[in-house]
Amino acid sequence: MASRSYSIERRRLLQSETRSRIAAAAAELHALKGAVATSYADIAQRAGVSLPTVYNHFPDQKELIEACTGHAAAAAPMPAFEQILAAADLPQAVELLVAGMDKANAYYEPWLAWREQRVIPALAEVEGRARKQLTAFLIDLLSRHRVVGNPRELAAVWESLLYFDAWHSLVREHKLPRTAVRSIQLHLLLAAVGPQPAVTAHPRPRRKS
Fold it and tell me: Taking the model in full, what pTM does it have?
């Protein structure tokens, strides 16, 4: 009985490893030549498995895309969201946010630069979720700092300025240094919020002598 249980667990482990290897191979190929130009045969060859094995693990493109994006996300240098929320003031939070998004956009560039979400619904779904999550975080950040204005509207503006398309246009198409792009984004984000009234600290009650 123990031997049979071990065999089942061993088989599951091997299947999981094979699935991960296929997802990694697909992610590498998608970065090199895009998802549209990558066939299941290409993935099988790169992963060192048979073509039926790829189909057994990923019978449709949606499942494959989900696995690929998950593989890529596991190594992504994401912004330190907790540190950003804990920043002393909004300018400091924005500086951390811009730096974090710059690193994330640079990391995801090999995949996002193909802009295939326009033709692959599964990629559009993944991107849509990522943008909604970022927008929700920005609403939380703006609300915590009690900015003047509608946090949802401001978050929409901030998300558009921070997301990959704007970054890629400035860095690759206009060939601006990433340091300059970070500075531009910092100023634009704060300008979108506008001047904020100074926060007056409430005086502490005096102790009775």
Answer: 0.89
